[in-house]
Amino acid sequence: MKPTDTSDPDYFHKVVDCQYACPSHTPVPEYIRLIAAGRYDDAYMINWQSNVFPGVLGRTCDRPCEPACRRGRVEAEPVAICRLKRVAADNKTDIRDRLPAIPKQKNGKKIALIGGGPASLTVARDLMPLGYEIDLYDDQSKGGGFMRSQIPAFRLPETVLDEEVNYILDMGVVTLFNQEVTSMKEILAKNYDAVFVGTGAPRGRDLPDLPGRKEGDANIHIGINWLASVAFEHVKKIGKRVLVLGGGNTAMDCCRTAIRLGGEDVRVVVRSPKSEMKASPWEIEDALHEDIPIYENHNPKAFITEQGRLVGMLFDVVEPVFDEKGQRTLVPTGEEVMMPCDDVLMAIGQLNAFPWIERDIGIEFNDWDMPEVDKTTFQTSLSQVFVGGDAAWGPENVITAVAHGHQAAISIDKHCQSEDVRDRPAPDFNLASQKMGFHDWLYDAHISDDARNIVPLVDKKTAIADRKLEVEKGFDFSQGYEEAMRCLNCDVQTVFETDRCIECDACEDICPVDCINFIDNDTEDNLREQIKVKATNLDQSLYVSDTLKTKRVMVKDENVCLHCGLCAERCPTGAWDMKKFLLHSATAASNRSKP
Amino acid sequence: MTYIRPNFRHPESLRNDAGYSIKHYEGALSTLCAGCGHDSISAAIIKSCFDLNLAPHKIAKISGIGCSSKTPTYFLGKAHGFNSVHGRMPSVTTGANMANKDLLYLGVSGDGDTASIGMGQFAHVVRRNLNMVYIVMNNGCYGLTKGQDSATADQGSVSKKGVPSVFDSIDLCQMALQLGAGLVARCFSGDKKQLIPIIKAAIQHQGFAFIDVISPCVTFNNTPQSTKGYEWVREHMEATGTIDFIPDRTEITLDYPAGSSRTVTLHDGSELHLQKSSADYDLSNRKAAMQQIETVKEQQKILTGLIYHNDTKLDTHGKINTVDTPLNALTQDELCPGSEVLAALNAKLR
After folding, report:
1. I want to staple A436 with a disulfide (CB 3.0 to 4.6 A). Which of A440, A500, A520, B130 is the partner?
2. Does A574 touch chain B (CB under 8 A)?
3. Using a CB-CB distance cutoff of 8 angstroms, which residues of chain A are in contact with residue B5?
């Protein structure tokens, strides 16, 4: 193999598994260390800069970082990164004086944001400090979009959402709430310098062709619409027997909301096996904790009505059958099940819908009737129109919408300043030695043996009695500290300098997880076979040095490195050093500050 | 900041056939200087015992005084250990071995502990062919007392102090050969490929097995002009051959050119394959071994690898004809068979 090029920021970024997996590339280990140090404001601001909604995400994030966490490969469970973010948000003081200053003198450019969800708000957050004037349109009465209408208050208290939405709106965004945009043509006619579409995926899937659908309509609801009605207090109760169709996170929110609104026999019914449910494992766990049963392999067949009123649902019991290619089909077993019910909530998927964008104004639509959006620039074929969040390619999650918002803001800024939108700014990063002295590092290299902390919950009965009572209490100080100490500091990199190495093997001998090897160079495949413990995780890189004096090379498998620093500790010549790699993704602001 | 070894190990590292993980063979975290060759030897001992599926509690590690003699703390934490008096490791090992011959005796010593204060003891333990592995961690200096030249420092070798050593050095391999050791080897701590199979062979050897391991002292004796430094040793090593240790019952798939290889069968059935670098050198010939050490030394090089092997000699227990049961397992009935047996014995002598 060729020597690893560590000057490419992508190499060390990839080692920081959590940050790399995060769509917004939040510097996770950095803020976790700040939490351990009790510097909650600093930890919060690192988050705020990167993911805009730390308090919201600390409760509701899809956590792509956690399955990626190196700790999960070393022991049973990853670090509770998401809930640590909440620790920072819960314990911070007033941070408003740290928010960026908004120039009084505007730059003369005006932007329209359609939809007030996380993607649009991120665009506003990134562009307001640069002097843009921004109009935000939303058909709801408050900002937040999906975060407000579809995440129940028992998971995300309104105060937390309001606070973080207001940090942005208070920058001077002109809000045009309760205004449904029905024509893109009209918006374009207002001569905005750019228009950002962040309207989400607002249309819930229906089962229009199922027998009884029309007759039972009064008690058959689209999940996301029903959740929105609950959030805005248009709906305050539901029948005693409720069937929730679907196995995603919306279904979990629907069933848990239903038991808080008077549902006594609430069931989740999914077509496929439980193992294939799309909901995050922890959200399924939360529903089960509230004693909500999940029925698998039940395919909806008909709504049963009596005298024009819904009385139940009929299901085909199916069985998953796999063909030679591993393709799964659900084959009916011939058995039918009838479940009596008063209400049905359908949470079986969401679609994008753009009836309000005229097809003759220069925005190209693809075969699926979705606008053609560039994956890098988020630009449509009409150069001043940009799309992001769920509106771009279908339902994802809040953190992805934020990531889209950052990129779209860069494009909008470049577009407005007549720069090439394809010329993307590089991330900001640095690599700094953590060595203080003998056995003394700037980071806490000691590896905690503690198992993952469990977030304490409000008593079940109390929680179910109050729709707005937050179920999770969050970590207290000591739990937050303990959990923070579980972080392996993957951003503190093991950096090897070939010329200093005397090949004493001290690092190889001391490494507790056998990742360091001094062997003859070979192809990557062969090296992965030949090192002490085979490098079977192909997602993880091999770090290869230049050729050493004995013609061998140092090969380090990054896979389960604990970043404990013992290699550097035991190195007599300083060939190994522990260096902190801090990367901030580019934003519209960092693009501007560059020469 | 403290300096603590994490408790996690590679989740995919395997257990050996005896069911132990590598962690069962580890000891406390080393307090020797970073980069010390002794730590590499400790790691080689750990790996050898792991590979040989030895039960850690069936091993006794015994040492004297010095940096080398501290190392038993850093490997085989579950084994028996005795950190004895300076230079007295051989007599303590002899005593232990006499009492319980069922354990594996791993003697660890240094150049000072063996070639100076312990020379008398060393000579006699070799002569008696005690069944043990004797490892000298040889760095040519007294590291614990700030690096003075030791008795194995070669004449002209320059340590950190910068003054060439004025005296002739003692070659411990030659001494061991002369005193009748059954297995004699010299290794380098920086070459585990060679060191590990030789430690395994020494463990399986019945009788006295001696390994002189050149182990650089990074703090006091790792200058370019030191004959015990990493650089010098790497440039001047001349191996007797490459070694492969083949455990018992393993199908041998290695293919050696005729005439240049030698297979040594060890007492447990495992085998040592030596790919010799010089075809006319006979490993079982003591005179030839002596000759070879001298020849290579004349070329300003260090002969490494397995130098001599002969397991036809009886070990101490064989020579003094002890019973098969370890002495510490003999009960009062066997040790005091009663007055009738005594009377019969006395009658025979009348």
Report:
1. A440
2. no
3. 510, 512, 564, 566
CA distance B12 to chain A (A): 7
Residues of chain A found within 8 Å of residue B4, distances taken between Cβ atoms: 446-447
**What's phi and psi for B272, nearest 5 deg?**
-120, 120
Task: Measure Cα distances from A556 to A8, A70, A282, B35 in Å.
Answer: 17, 15, 34, 18
Query: How many whole angstroms separate alpha carbon A6 and alpha carbon A544?
Result: 10
The CATH number assigned to the domain holding B244 equals 3.40.50.970
Distance of CA A14 to the CA centre of its chain: 17
* B336, part of any domain: no
CA distance B74 to A418: 66
Per CB-CB distance under 8 Å, the chain B contacts of A74 are 8, 11
Chosen from A77, A486, A505 to mutate, greatest number of chain B CBs within 10 A: A505
A288 reaches B (C-beta below 8 A): no
Are B33 and A572 a contacting pair at CB < 8 A? yes
Interface A-B, measured as beta-carbon pairs within 8 A, has a size of 100
* B287 in a structural domain: yes
Tokens of A494: 């093991």
Could you give phi then psi for residue A576, rounded to 5 degrees?
-100, 140
Rg of chain A on CA atoms, in Å: 26
What range does the domain containing B164 cover?
A: 22-320
User: Which residues in B lie closer than 8 A to residue A446 (C-beta atoms)?
Assistant: 1-2, 4, 6
Dist CA B208 CA B205 (whole Å): 8
Q: Provide the residue count of chain A.
A: 595
Residue B343 forms part of a structural domain: no
Instruction: Confirm whether B39 is domain-assigned.
Output: yes
Give the separation between CA A322 and CA A336, rounded to whole angstroms: 22
Task: Tell me the domains of chain A and their CATH numbers.
Answer: 99-201+352-416 (3.50.50.60), 204-350 (3.50.50.60)
Helix (H, G, I), strand (E, B), or coil: what is residue A519? strand
In this complex, the residue of A512, A536, A572 whose CB is nearest that of residue B34 is: A572
Which two three-digit tokens encode residue B156?
Answer: 């002209």
The amino acid occupying position A65 is C
Q: How close B286 gets to chain A, by Cα (Å)?
A: 32
**ipTM for this prediction:** 0.88
| Number of domains composing chain B | 1
Asked if the C-beta of B156 comes within 8 angstroms of chain A's C-beta atoms, the answer is no
Inter-chain CB proximity A446 and B2 less than 8 Å: yes
Question: Each residue's pLDDT tens digit in chain A (595 positions)?
Answer: 999 999 999 999 999 999 999 999 999 999 999 999 999 999 999 999 999 999 999 999 999 999 999 999 999 999 999 999 999 999 999 999 999 999 999 999 999 999 999 999 999 999 999 999 999 999 999 999 999 999 999 999 999 999 999 999 999 999 999 999 999 999 999 999 999 999 998 889 999 999 999 999 999 999 999 999 999 999 999 999 999 999 999 999 999 999 999 999 999 999 999 999 999 999 999 999 999 999 999 999 999 999 989 999 999 999 999 888 888 888 999 999 999 999 999 999 988 889 999 999 999 999 888 999 999 999 999 999 999 999 999 889 999 999 999 999 999 999 999 999 999 999 999 999 999 988 889 999 899 999 999 999 999 999 999 999 999 999 999 999 999 999 999 999 999 999 999 999 999 999 999 999 999 999 999 999 999 999 999 999 999 999 999 999 999 999 999 999 999 999 999 999 999 999 999 999 887 775 4
Whether B21 and B46 have beta carbons less than 8 Å apart is answered as no
Q: Are B107 and B90 in contact (CB under 8 A)?
A: yes
Closest residue, chain B, to A512 (C-alpha)? B9
Interface residue A536 vs chain B (CB under 8 A): yes
Task: In whole angstroms, give the CA distance from residue A12 to residue A317.
Answer: 50
- pTM of the prediction? 0.90
Cα gap A159→A156, rounded to integer Å: 8
